Amino acid sequence: MEEKREIRESVNSPLKKLSFKNEVYKKIFLTGLALLFIAYLFLNSKSIFTGFGTLLGIMAPFILGGVIAFIMKIPLNFFERKVFSKIKNKKIEKHKRTISIALTFIFIILVIFIIMAIIVPQLINSFDGIRKSLPSFLQMAIDKTREIPYLSNYSDKLQSEYNNLSWNEIFNRIRDFVTSSERPSNILNSAISTASSILGGLVSFMLALITSIYILADKERLGYQATRICYSFFNNKIADKIIHVVHLLHENFFGFIRGQLTVSTFIGIATFVSCFVIGVPNAATLGVIIGVTDLIPIIGPFLGGAMGFIMTVIEDPTKGIIFIILILILQQIESNLVYPKIVGNKVGLPSLWTLVAITVGGSLFGVVGMWAFIPLASTLYELMREYTEYKIKEKNLDLRIKKV
């Protein structure tokens, strides 16, 4: 009975302060580093990569389903805790989870549809405008080089290359490649391969959606089963610490994703309102582009600003300059006021270590690594802080920051 009570108390309060006897956290930390190193070796070894890639391909829909469920839990919790918790109806309370899941998917589909409906037509128009305006822009740039002493010597060469450049010839070559009778089998094979890839991707995506629905519908039971397995394989002290680490990971990842989405929504709306007020064309499209690209750490704001500037400067060069100034102001507000208040409080990772996490994650796994390594680094930072605090208290030391 006492052991069951201890397990129940540990499960109900997994985020409580835990002792560091036997240095279990140190073992978990070193084990995690070893697993990451092994995974990195797998991903960079050609002989092992084939088998690992096959296994990953089989598990990919289920992994993607877990990621979708994790993101979908943000609006799901809102519907359950903020909307249906205020409705006192037994039938609605009984089917609250099912209705919330349905509303969550409807909400996400509507958001994606609105973004695509706003951004795709404008991008097509912008590319068409670039195609029409690019020759005059290039000619104007060549003319400007004649006014610069150091570049005037190259102006004639640039002019000659530009005169020999034929856009129609480029498009004709592309058309000839597609319609050439010399490669009908290659084109047919390419079409079949593309169709198979699309069909396989759709099947995998549908399987991922179904997996995410099952996870969302039964997430409490899945968590309970994982807890039972953990306590059945390890003794209570080790299981307590594993549960503590898992809950830290969950809180940091969930808080980071929710905060990042909130900040991106804020910067997108602020961009739309600002552009609309000062008369910058395509304010809605620019707001969507800035909001979506802001989800990419560090390089996202620059990418969105560059895309918005190109779209704006084609229609009005003066408005393009105003747009760049506006984006710089909004990015300063986001970086110094909004982001630290929203994401900083959720993650709790100092700026220096955030930069390190983004750099390491981006160099290893690209944009996905940038997203994953920030909450992962935050978890490691919190565990190291707890362990350091425990060891300092154990040694009875009085260490304080010295102001210089």
**How many E-type strands?**
0
**Approximately how much helix is present in the residues?**
over 70%
Instruction: Point out poorly predicted stretches.
Output: 1-18, 181-185
- Beta fraction: under 5%
Mean pLDDT: 75
What is the 3D form?
A: globular
List the SSEs and their pairings.
Blueprint: H1 2-12, H2 24-43, H3 46-83, H4 90-94, H5 96-145, H6 152-164, H7 167-179, H8 184-217, H9 219-233, H10 236-278, H11 283-293, H12 299-315, H13 317-347, H14 351-394
Walk me through the structure.
It is globular, with a radius of gyration of 27 Å. With 404 residues, it is mostly helical. It is 85% helix and 0% strand. Helix 3 (46-83) packs across helix 8, helix 5 (96-145) crosses helix 6 (152-164) and helix 10 (236-278) runs antiparallel to helix 13 (317-347). The chain has helices spanning 2-12, 24-43, 46-83, 90-94, 96-145, 152-164, 167-179, 184-217, 219-233, 236-278, 283-293, 299-315, 317-347, 351-394.
Observed structural traits:
14 helices; single chain; mainly alpha; 0% strand; 404 residues
Question: How would you concisely characterize the structure shown here?
Answer:
The chain is an all-alpha fold. It contains 14 helices and no strands. The longest helix is centred in the first third of the chain and has 50 residues, at 96-145.
